[in-house]
Amino acid sequence: MGKQARKRRLPEALKGEYRPLLQCTNARVQGEAAIQTKVTMNEMRKVLAEFRAKGRDFKQLATVHDEILIEAPFDITEKERDKLVEVMTQSYLLNGVANESDVEIYTQRWGDAIRWDDFKKERGY
Q1: Residue burial 12-49, b: 16+ Cβ < 10 Å; e: rest
Q2: Using CA atoms, how far apart are residues 23 and 11, in angstroms rounded to an integer?
């Protein structure tokens, strides 16, 4: 096995004539994911602007792969949370199929995430 194939962990068969086929498939998947993320980010920007127009302090902080990190007020409501999930799952449908989205709350540090249901229990909702 060649050095490049080992590095990428590709079978020897994929080095030759089949390699363009693999790259073509991967490019389609990567490209579709990039489009999906960009469309969702644009829709999220609009929703966060609506929240800010109502006096709510929401900010889009970063995008990491397929995640959008949002700074939200500690008193975020279930209705606001549902709207954020709707944007994440419905902004870009591939063949009419909705996406899946998890909501995690970081109250202190990045590594201390808690699930939405646990956050609600803590707050007495």
Answers
A1: eeeeeeeeeeeeeeeeeeeeeeeebbeebeebbeebbe
A2: 14
Both tokens assigned to 38 = 């960009």
pTM over 0.85: no
pLDDT digit string, tens, across residues 2-44: 555 445 565 665 566 767 777 777 788 888 888 988 999 999 9
Domains and CATH numbers, the chain: 12-123 (3.30.70)
Please give the Cα distance from 49 to 41 (Å, whole number). 12
Q: 3-state DSSP helix/strand/coil percent for the chain, to nearest 5?
A: 55, 15, 30
